[in-house]
Amino acid sequence: MTARATLSPAAVGTRLPPTTHRWMPTDAILYALGVGARPPAERHLLDEHVGPAVLPTYALVANWWAVKDLRAILDLGASPIVHAAQSLSLERSVAASGEVSVDAEVTALWDTGKHAVIEVTSTGTDADGPLFHASSQTMVLGEGGFGGTRPASTAPAPHRAPDGVYADEVRPEQAAIYRLSGDRNPLHIDPAAARRFGFDDVFLHGLCTLGFAARALINVAGNGDPASLTSISCRFAKPVKLASELRTEIWRDGAGPVRFQTLQGDVVSLSSGTATLTGC
Predict the structure, then answer these.
(1) Strand locations in 79-214, DSSP E?
(2) Is the bond preceding residue 40 a cis peptide, omega within 30 degrees?
(3) Which of 133, 151, 211, 231 has its CA 20 to 30 A from that of 192?
(4) 111: which strand partners?
(5) Are 217 and 248 in contact (CB under 8 A)?
(6) Residue 248 and residue 216: Cα distance in Å, rounded?
(7) CA angle, 192 then 197 then 203, to 5°
(8) Rounded Cα–Cα distance for residues 203 and 242 (Å)
(9) CA–CA distance, 220 with 204 (Å, rounded to integer)
(10) Which domain of life is it from (predicted)?
(11) How does DSSP classify residue 224?
(12) Bridge partner residues of 106 (DSSP)
């Protein structure tokens, strides 16, 4: 008999064990390669002789180490879980090397009717003070119906042509590179493991897809400067296949946040995307 999750409103307020993440320029370069950066156009992300400049979403690598044991901490049993949404805001740019301590806490538990959704809010702090704030949503499949509050609905993409589009390529080895930044889930490299969980084949990590979207936003709306992107959020709608094209559609809405969605063909992979960039 499959062990079921133990969920109750009492989970809200649970503090996760603090973690510390250290990185060097090679780690930032490996991450950039993992989320699709390629020379020569993005050499500034890949060459220690000219930086490297660090993609702001590298902060989510440090955050992942803080929230990766959520299943065990909340006694989620064998219920399947998926990463449902992610947000990140930065106080300042991520340096090419450093050390950050991350404190995380369960801040909400929602009931979609069919599934449960757990929100974890994190703060990463280095020697200069808070560096980033993040919010992760984990969906526990099949564990809804416990009488909790439904999550807030999200806004659809604008009903007009995008103001910018960034086309990219997900290479066959993309997930194999990205997993070296920490998330070694076999679903992203072992076809047999993926099929056991109902997938046709391996697929890209959700946070890797978010890194692709961050690069798109920086290149289209941020003049190629990683420091221009100060916040980003999205929902993970569909898995991304390897060895395929990926495109991010971007809308500028006056003085408000930039809106975006990321697609493979006509299938939306990242939905309800918003971002803040200096100068936009």
Answers:
(1) 81-90, 98-111, 116-126, 129-140, 164-170
(2) yes
(3) 211
(4) 116
(5) yes
(6) 6
(7) 70
(8) 6
(9) 23
(10) Bacteria
(11) T
(12) 120
Query: Between 25-34 and 206-221, two packed helices, what is the crossing angle to 10 degrees?
Result: 90
Count the helix, strand and coil residues of the chain and give each as a percent rounded to the nearest 5: 25, 35, 40
DSSP 48-68: GGG-----GGGHHHHHHHHHT
| Measured distance CA(101)–CA(18) in Å, rounded | 7
In this prediction, residue 104 carries a pLDDT of: 97
Of 173, 126, 162, residue with least CA distance to 260: 162
Do 221 and 280 contact (CB within 8 A), yes or no?
yes
pLDDT at res. 5: 63
Return the amino acid letter for 139.
Answer: M
Tokens read off for 112: 């979609």
Task: Report the pLDDT value the prediction gives residue 77, as an integer from 0 to 100.
Answer: 85
Q: What pLDDT is attached to residue 4?
A: 58
Q: Which residues are catalytic?
A: 183, 188
Q: What is the pLDDT of residues 189-243, one digit of tens each?
A: 999 999 988 889 999 999 999 999 999 999 999 999 999 999 999 999 999 999 9
Report how far residue 171's alpha carbon sits from residue 57's, in angstroms, rounded to the nearest whole number. 20
First vs last Cα of the chain: how many Å apart? Answer: 53
pTM: 0.95
d(CA 225, CA 96): 14
CB half-sphere exposure, 29, CA atoms < 13 A: 13
pLDDT at 156: 86
pLDDT at 1: 38
- Element housing 192 (H / E): helix 191-196
Q: Count CA within 13 A, CB hemisphere, residue 204.
A: 31
pLDDT tens-digit readout, 19-35: 999 999 999 999 999 99
- What integer pLDDT is reported at residue 147 of this predicted model? 82
Beta bridge partners of 261: 249
